[in-house]
Amino acid sequence: MRTHTYTTFVHWDADGGDSTKSYRGYSRNHVIGAEGKPEIAASSDPAFRGDATRYNPEELLVASLSSCHMLWYLHLCAVNGITVVDYRDRASGAMEEDGDGSAHFTGVELRPIVTIDDIERRARAVELHDEAHRLCFIARSVNFPVKVLPNDVRTADESRPRP
After folding, report:
1. Sequence-ordered list of residues with C-beta below 8 angstroms from that of 112, at least 6 positions apart, any chain
2. d(CA 72, CA 126)
3. Where are the domains of the chain?
4. Which of 163, 155, 161, 147 is nearest to 89 (CA)?
5. Residue-wise pLDDT tens digits, 40-78
6. Architecture field, domain 57-159
7. Which residues on adjacent β-strands are paired with residue 55?
């Protein structure tokens, strides 16, 4: 068995603000990064006094699930001879707050829309979403359901807007 290690950093500072002298006084803005990669401007969810123009941890979790599914799906299509020309997903996650201020995710839904070049391969392209979901590292690691909703697989001709 191989082990893979991932190292990231998070950096926050008072940036001339009120530090943590009061709950309302400190900025939730921070950066997330990894060596040699661009930083991600992050904050908390606006519901928790964060900056809506920055990514929050909850969005990044949902994006991680969506990205992992997509990467497995593209891999499986490639090894199954299915040519994907476009992949889009509008994923969403639900989180419930508890009375003590803690919270937990209750589920994430992925809604992939895939464009392939061969209509004859549509059925297999749809099936591969189940396999991608089974193999996704992130989905296998969370303690809430991740659903891949009806898979829209179409050809390039079907994806073009109609007059």
Report:
1. 69, 70, 73, 87, 88, 89, 129, 148, 151, 152
2. 13
3. 1-55, 57-159
4. 147
5. 999 999 999 999 999 999 999 999 999 999 999 999 999
6. 2-Layer Sandwich (3.30)
7. 42
